UniProtKB/TrEMBL annotation:
Residues 7-225 form the Alanine racemase N-terminal domain. This is Predicted amino acid racemase. It comes from Chryseobacterium taeanense. Keywords: Isomerase, Pyridoxal phosphate. One of its GO terms (cellular component) is cytosol. Its cofactor is pyridoxal 5'-phosphate. GO terms for molecular function: alanine racemase activity; pyridoxal phosphate binding. It comes from the Bacteria. CDD domains: PLPDE_III_AR_like_1.
Length: 370
């Protein structure tokens, strides 16, 4: 069976690296854990090395986090479905909101549960995902502030995820202005502006995050060391917290071009081939995972000289011509994985999940929370 591993030691080192960055700039941050898809093994590993609020966009995942660590504060980071108000109040300490009727439902439910539910009002800043229009902020705020058992803990925005709109100093400065206007109008402090995410981190050292932006939500950079803004990597961070491993189930020398009439394959494509390869052969290996488990374009063989040729539903085909003497049936091959590849693998019941560096878990946890 193929499996994906999470390296706890490297995760802790990435966490410490980011923590140092945010402490330097006096910014609070929360960990976005939705990539882990509520997997208990990986969540335990994450919770052992962090001391932060945990964000997720799936209610079942927040429920699992509360079961594993009741003291951990949880944040639901998309506008809740109105029908889920009871569970949102039960499992999320904070939720991001942009609909008045939903907040009213949360207020009623928080009253029933004898709780105060905290919310972040999301504002549209050009990405055209969730958020109220900025010119309606005061009217919206005026309605929300009347509701019992609801506390407005911040305003926020989302960028980059849908249309690729990048954060900049102008947009972030405008958010700071919105908070100032709301505070002056309603004579009530708004503690946080949650406008930072992985894509905003590189703006810190360039001085393009204005004072007042004091909360970040970070997932991808924590797990992959990515500089999302510049499409590269941050120095001093591990890129290989995750690794995918698959077993070789067949090795044969075969023609490089298939024979017969070509139609569409499983993914609806009609493959094209270099006719100069006709009559040539290559050594091909098959490993035990496919498009049900991963996106073939998002995995990279870690053994030099191996090439991914394609995949069907549950098998991936590799060209191992340059490495054939060192590979045999039953061997395991390792692959580097992107964010989307891990997300697909985490959602597959056919890919096992394993934690490495568990013998160092206690020491890492102590260091990360010192």
């Amino acid at each position: 069976m193929s499996y994906i591993t999470l390296n706890t030691q490297k995760l802790a080192q990435n966490y410490n690296h980011l923590n140092n960055i945010f402490e330097k700039h006096q910014i609070e941050w929360a960990v976005v854990a939705k990539l882990l898809c509520g997997n208990e093994t990986f969540l335990k590993s994450l919770l052992s090395v962090i001391d932060k609020d945990v964000c997720d966009s799936r209610l079942s995942n927040l429920k699992k986090i509360k079961e594993l660590s009741p003291e951990t504060k949880t944040v639901y980071i998309k506008p809740p479905a109105k029908r889920l108000a009871k569970s949102i109040v039960k499992y999320a300490d904070v939720s991001f909101n942009s609909e008045l009727d939903t907040i009213k439902a949360l207020s009623e439910e928080a009253f029933r549960q004898h709780k105060t539910h905290r919310i972040v009002i999301m504002i549209e800043m050009g990405e055209l995902r969730e958020g109220i229009m900025a010119d309606s902020l005061l009217e919206f705020y005026a309605e929300v502030i009347k509701l019992p058992n609801i506390e407005i803990t911040g305003i926020g925005t989302n960028l980059k995820c849908l249309n690729g709109i990048l954060p900049d100093r102008e947009k972030l400065t405008q958010l700071v202005r919105y908070r100032r206007i709301a505070e002056q109008t309603f004579k009530k402090k708004i503690p946080y502006i949650s406008a930072g995410s992985s894509v905003t981190i590189p703006l810190l050292d360039s001085g393009n995050v204005p004072e007042g932006i004091n909360h970040f939500r970070v997932g991808e950079t924590l797990f992959f060391g990515t500089d999302v803004f510049n499409d590269t990597y941050l120095k001093g961070m591990h890129r290989d917290v995750f690794k995918l491993t698959a077993e070789v189930i067949e090795i044969h020398e075969k023609p490089m071009i298939p024979t017969g009439k070509v139609g569409k394959n499983l993914t609806g494509e009609s493959p094209e081939y270099n006719q100069e390869d006709r009559g040539k052969t290559s050594v091909r290996a098959i490993v035990d995972l496919g498009v049900l488990d991963i996106d073939v374009k998002q995995v990279t063989p870690l053994t030099e000289g191996i090439e991914v040729l394609g995949a069907s539903s549950d098998m991936m085909i590799l060209n191992i011509t340059d490495e054939e003497k060192d590979i045999k049936v039953g061997d395991e091959l390792d692959f580097g994985v992107s964010y989307l590849a891990v997300l697909r693998a985490m959602n597959s019941d056919y890919v096992d999940k394993k934690v490495v560096s568990t013998e160092k878990l206690k020491k890492i946890s102590e260091k990360a929370t010192a």
